[in-house]
Amino acid sequence: MADHTLDVTIVTPDGSVYDKKNATMIVLKTTGGDIGVMANHVPVVAGLKIDAVKVKFEDGEDQVAVNGGFVEFSNNLATIVADSAELPEDIDVQRAQSAKERAEEHIAHAKEVSDKDELARAEVALRRALNRLSLTEK
After folding, report:
1. What pLDDT score does 2 carry?
2. Residue 6 has pLDDT above 90, yes or no
3. Measured between alpha carbons, how far is residue 77 from residues 30, 37, 113, 118 in Å?
4. 70-107 b/e with 16+ CB inside 10 Å = b?
5. Has UniProt tagged this entry with the keyword tRNA processing (predicted)?
6. pLDDT at position 1, please?
């Protein structure tokens, strides 16, 4: 069975966030589109968008909120190096909700004053907050 599974590791500048063996598939939103990687897939390196990474097992699925970074897959090991990443049980819902509200306020302000840089930063902050909140809504 081991040759039909893959190992998944997610690291951030703060350290390891996720490390599991025997996954059957990993589903990622890359800058080039959505991909699913199974054991024995050809090597891949891809940039990641802000989204949930889904790690599938025979008996279920884990999800991790990943905020950018990249994935490297080879020899049945998927290594994700992310700007930040959180497991659903580690997400502070109140803090994520506050971040969402602040980002929405910044977006409104940036549109009022036509500040493209502020708008871009606020849109990224909003995507991050929504990504985190989406994993807590089960």
Report:
1. 47
2. yes
3. 17, 10, 47, 38
4. bbebeebebbbbbebbbebeebeeeebeebbeebeebb
5. no
6. 42
- Identify the residue whose tokens are 């992310």: 82
Compute the distance between CA of residue 53 and CA of residue 67 in angstroms, rounded to an integer. Answer: 10
Averaged pLDDT of the chain: 93
> Is the pTM value of this prediction over 0.85?
yes
- What confidence score (pLDDT) does residue 138 get? 58
